[in-house]
From TrEMBL:
Residues 313-480 form the Helicase ATP-binding domain. Its EC number is 5.6.2.4. Pfam families: DEAD (PF00270), Helicase_C (PF00271), PriA_3primeBD (PF17764), PriA_C (PF18074), Zn_ribbon_PriA (PF18319). Its cofactor is Zn(2+). It catalyses: ATP + H2O = ADP + phosphate + H(+); Couples ATP hydrolysis with the unwinding of duplex DNA by translocating in the 3'-5' direction. It comes from the Bacteria. This is Replication restart protein PriA. The gene is priA. One of its GO terms (cellular component) is primosome complex. One of its GO terms (molecular function) is ATP binding.
Amino acid sequence: MEDLFADQYPATASKNLFADIILPVPIPRWFTYSVGPDIQDHIGIGYRVMVQFGKKKILTGIVAKVHQKAPEVYQAKPILDLLDDFPVVNALQIKFWSWMASYYCCHMGEVMNAALPSGLKLSTESRVQLHPDFDFDNPGFPMDERELLLLETLGKNEEMNVEQFDQLLPGKTSHKIIKSLLGKGAILVYESVKEKYSPKTEQRVRLASKYTGEDSLLQSLFEALKGKEKQEAVLLKYLQQVDVFRDSGKNTEGLPKKVLTDQGCSASSIDTLIKKGVLDAFKVLISRFDSVPMTEREFTLSPPQAAALEDIHRHFEEKNTVLLQGITGSGKTEIYAQLIREVLQSGSQVLMLLPEIALTTHLVNRMQQIFGDKMGVFHSKYSDNERVEVWQGVLKGRYNFIIGVRSSVFLPFDSLGLVIVDEEHESSYKQYDPAPRFHARDAAIMLSWMHQAKTLLGTATPAFESYFNAQNGKYGFVKLDQRYGNAELPHFRLADILQDKKKNLLKLDFTRLMREKIQETLNRQEQVLIFQNRRGYAPYLSCDECGWIPQCEHCDVSLTYHQYQEELRCHYCGFKEKVPVSCQACGSQKITTIGTGTERIEESLSLLFPEARIARMDLDTTRSKYGYQRILDNFGAGNVDILVGTQMITKGLDFDKVSLVGIVDADRILFYPDFRAGERAFQQITQVAGRAGRRDKIGEVIIQTRRPDQLIFKQIISGDYADFYRLEMAERKQFFYPPFVKNIKIVVKHKDFKTSEIAAKKLKNLLTDIPAKKIVLGPEKSIIGKIKNLYLFEIWIKLDRSGNVQQFFKQQLMGRIAELQADKRFRAVRFLVDVDPY
């Protein structure tokens, strides 16, 4: 394909200066471009540049290196434009990106794509318009039918993109036609490059400077406005709020136009005064974030908190990372705040990671009360503009303390002093798709090390890897095992589902004990949390006559029934269809629901407790930006008696009136085909139980199970994490599971089952030949063998933990994958590498 832009971007005269550019493409290299003389004195590491990539793409890149060595195998294209007056990425970030690409077996461009907010990347689209000087009636050149068709279409449209022309012409020949029309001077082709980020501005007005010098001029102005009551009212309102004679600076700042209109002034009258030159209109950049005043004074730590803080300081003298195991309600937040204050006073920056900000709003609000506008929030549901604003706030020193989700590790810190990872055990710190498939806790520890900073990991139920490192002396370890204010831990009770079923006491999935305790709590006008780790009304539908189960058209899974939307939905690809009225296999209308989701739990509770106000918190009810907050605000205000939810309700909720937590089906968490199932069950049940009985109230936790004899329940009830850890670790050591080995999972995907299987087997053979201490398992068809019409096979590697072995094996692994993809049979096969799958 010919280069449409060759004539528009002529080669820049070279002064032997080149730049290596990181581009957001999954290719394992940087790209060298020549630096034009007009930007040679301004370019440097971390600047954004606009470059041409391939035949027609225009991409945003980040300068990684500036040098004088020309590429040997190709002629360097010129950098088209320098997009900033200052670098938006620093050298430490680029070093961090390089480590992440190496450790997580991906490409630097993929890391850059994940790291930069979309608002700092440019969107490009080739566009075409008629040449202003082109005479359609006398073109001067012969035109064929296809060219005339394009010109006629352009005549009806101010501009069009190339993709629209592809739809007009048979055989996708638009590029050749466009090239021909360019040569005939009939059209202009250009790249419509628009930055997605646009700063938020505020329209302001101020009194024209000629009226601020003398009272007499202002008096003459009022005389001129006599009879024009609305304009006079605008001027009076302005002068009431801005004393133009005593403080001329106030007039320079002006007044937001909205302030005047909100006070009843006519917008048209304001515009008339602007046209007359009485008022000046101007715009100012403003923040998208509301100013938050510091309202909380110094606080005093309890003796256990003070002792824990002292231990953390002592460990930090010798170790870079400390694990703080503090039971739920022990007051870890106050310790965090004290450490943050100390680091900020020293002039360094602080990053605090949370698994999901919207679910830990109490903690965020508390930190805002303590640190006010010094603190920035990097929210997972922020818009592109809001993310850019936080990025630039860190860059320019406005925010020295950031509280955010896993992507916060990519922000442009230059002097980190402390990183805190709250609830460090949470699986939501793991990025699954797309690459880089990183774990924010581990990435934060490396980021902290690069900045020579300290890392604090906080949790009530540590991840086994973190606890293992603490027990072996790699991390410092501090334990806080008293609730703040001597509040007592909740009381646990096990409810046997099978026993109640035998005695006909099970009603709508609730045991008698659970129903009684809920009713008692409602009678005391207290609140209940009900935990069920599955959303939807029921896992699936089934025909009573033949057993038919509706399946997703694109994935090997059954469709989940969602009653509120009256639809069946695939939770893997998003496929939806209406609920069938009859069986598609036998025609029977006896279709029933199997299993229990949060929707069904909500419905059952409304039937059992019709007087109760019930709400549900799951992915379906919290899709909107402030969905979480609305539900939590209602619950906190006492407008909800029972809150039903998935794992979302296990994190961060701190409500005084919650005295009962019910776990509907603990077996679903425990008996899951994953070596971490026991660890996750202990963590989730302990976390959700911690929501009960805060402050001076003793809460209760009811766990419904079919296997009350399981040892893990005894360990959860006694809070004996150490005993649970000891028994689980003995099994992991015996069967070679983390933390004794390093796990790497490779998923092989292709639309053809056989091609996917053959590629997976060939890769397995290539990996087996790598001379490293390892175990290679598979390939096996994934538990869900098809997702989005692609067939999946998995290969698992259990690798020796030593750093040299890991680095060597990962390099060899990426080389073997590249070798396979060079084979034309496997060019369309996707190989997804997941280091430390969680």
